[in-house]
Amino acid sequence: MWEYTDKVKEHFLNPRNVGEVENPDGAATVGSLACGDALKLTFKLDEQGRIQEARFKTFGCASAIASASALTEMIKGMTVEEAAKITNQDIANFLGGLPEEKMHCSVMGREALEAAIAHYRGEPGPIEEGKIVCECFGVTEEEIARVVRENNLRTIEEVTNYTKAGGGCGGCHEAIQEIIDRVRGEGKVIARPKLSNIQKIRMIEETIDREIRPALQMDGGDLELIDVVGNRVLVATRGACASCAASHLTMKQVVEAKLRELVWPELEVEEVSQ
Amino acid sequence: MKPIYLDNNATTRVAPEVLEEMLPYLQDFYGNPSSMHTFGGQVGRKVRQAREQVAKILGAAPEEIIFTSCGTESDNTAIRSALATNPGKRHIVTTRVEHPAVHSLAARLAQEGCRVTEIPVDAEGRLHMEQYAKSLSPDTAIVSMMWANNETGVIFPVEEAATLAHNRGILFHTDAVQAVGKIPIDMRQNCIDMLSISGHKLHAPKGVGALYVRKGTRFSPFLIGGHQEKGRRGGTENVPSIIALGLACDLAAQKMTTENTVVKELRDRLENALLTKVPRCRVNGDRINRLPNTSNISFEFVEGEAILLRLDEYAICASSGSACTSGSLQPSHVLRAMGVPFTMAHGSIRFSLSVYNTENDIDTVIDTLPGIIENLRALSPYWEVGDAICARVEG
Question: Distance between CA A185 and CA B294 in Å, rounded?
Fold first, then answer.
């Protein structure tokens, strides 16, 4: 059973603003029957350009219904410009949070809002644009990149929780990983000055000495830097590590993660026997 | 609020008699059945009795019963054993609608280099027997085919399928966790080699199961350890639960007639009333060859989890094959294998009854559910449009 907050339950059992606004200024339907959830959002503005009335119809689970109900409550009284700033996280926060696996319900809310605003402004719907990455759920590259950016997502599983992409046949997992890597690389590349080779090697040495070797030495093991070729960091294990079956895993997970975090995000650790 | 429990294919309540029977073996008689002293020995005798009781409901011999920790362990043991004892054969035949205990194992074995054939089912969930017969090859190590489907209750002709396999020298295993205790099974009348049982599906506690292995079947243990279960399953016996499973089998045999009359009538009453009172719903699966306690109904244009949580407000417990409840993002693999349309698959609800259900339980559901569906349909953007389109197509 899902752990829903009381507010999610309350909005599910007593949804606000169900139905359709007559002669709406903005209207949109996102999602589909095949995907298991869909949301139709309609709104009407008052003379001051504020959202006077917002209504929804949802096909979906409890959190999809609650997210749509919450959304209509949130946008009432807002200007279109204010409403356009609402993120999926805002919808989830309004409800006191959603289970990770259900975050896609909040994303559907934001998508419907955006599409309805686009309709009001006479623009093309933002969602139809772009290359489809996940065929099973019809999710585009743009959508995935956006949730990764806005929600600081790190794994394919998280992307699936937020967009459903990758939750069907799994054929797009590689493509999703590439998007995650690209988006997460964006900030870093700008923030980080390019390292010269000398600087890079020096930093790797320092990091190994400071962060990694003390821990390994406590277990009677050790690690030696053999060479750095481009982004490949060649290391050799010594002492207890050399005969430890788990050491390869240690290399990949611990050493590589540390070096990527502290030196350069594209480093790859390889173990060599020397 | 006392729950109205209609989710007995998920798990069942422990029968009060069963609980009473097992408690002394948690409290006073904690001896190890393998011990040499009388204190342990008396426990060993009770385990022996339980083995006889389990054998009896299957028409089997006690030495053909191996106690395990659950149905999943039984399934894994049977299939891995067949592969281990047939090292030259690397083909497995199973179906598209198996429980994950077999389905996921088959997927894993495919990764390990086995060839896996999954036999499809038709729109009613019935097995394509022709395709099954064609799939058997000299390389086939084992067929694993469920006796009855947990989601729809559809019963497969496993005895006939086992004969076909045997004629080709192929081992046959059946996951019978949903069938045992609900329909008569007599292993003297068929040539099935291995059969899985789960305790908590027939009013014994969770954490105990059994595997029937026909005498003379070559066997390779899954859990390697002590000499328990004649070396066929290492690990100290879960004595209280094994004793519980024994009595639960006895009780199930006694209540088999009730299951197929009283429970079946309650199920039919529930099903027929819902089909009459709620527009645009349908039963998933063959209504003839079906477990007496199971009804899988789809309500078009609404989503299953929403239905379940509204039912939960009335303490009515059921299951759904919708995406949001299946733990994945797609509706149940069983409904998809049957080609149930998306408009229906997301709104499927499984009711599974037991001998503990009353007419009152059923009446409450009949009084409650139509209103819930109507209410959720009023929320659904597809309802009015979809209803109109469907009516036109059908009209």
Answer: 52
